[in-house]
Amino acid sequence: MILDHPGRLIAIAIVLLIFGFVMPFLMALGVVESTLFLNFLSFGASVLGLFLGVAGITVYRGKQKKKDDDENPYK
Question: Closest by alpha carbon to 17, among 5, 27, 25?
Fold first, then answer.
């Protein structure tokens, strides 16, 4: 599953966060026409990217902690 690869999860989150930042910026500049669909899409991408990033960092840290615990000879 995707939780087995936290690096991919973090990469997807970064792409979504960048999309959620760039689209409103382009809409404010007038490069892209601001529509209700694009507004909700960019907001949803930002929120989803934030949640996926937090989940990816949590899974990554959990795997690191398990690896550190396995290598600890004094446990």
Answer: 25
Tokens (6 digits) for 50: 């934030």
Q: What tokens were used for 68?
A: 């550190």
> What would the pLDDT profile of 11-63 be if each residue is shown by its tens digit?
999 999 999 999 999 999 999 999 999 999 999 999 999 999 999 999 998 88
The model's pTM: 0.82
For the chain, the domains span: 2-66
- Left if phi > 0, otherwise alpha if psi is -120 to 50, otherwise beta: which for 72? beta
- Neighbour tally for 7: CB within 10 Å: 10
